[in-house]
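Quick illustration, no need to memorize.
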Amino acid sequence: MNYINRISFNPWDYTLYQIIDGGFVLKIVFSEGVYKVDIERYFLFTANGIITPLDAEYMKALSENIRCDYARFQLREITKGQFQTGFVIVDKDNDSV
């Protein structure tokens, strides 16, 4: 998977990357634990999985939905290593948000 570019971001919230096949990788910052350590998690979406990628309010709402209902989106999660190397498997039949 080759990343085309970063197309949308909100600092300390999310960064959205568009990939060569038209899909997206959404990096979301989570604050976890007693000391509220910030960690990054990566979620894979097909081209149809994110309806309005350039709408900042939509993306903020989507990132907040993922934080609040992580279990619903957990199957979309990829590792940082998969993101960096581009090694992921896309399930195009299961891409509803």
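The two ends are 22 Å apart (CA to CA).
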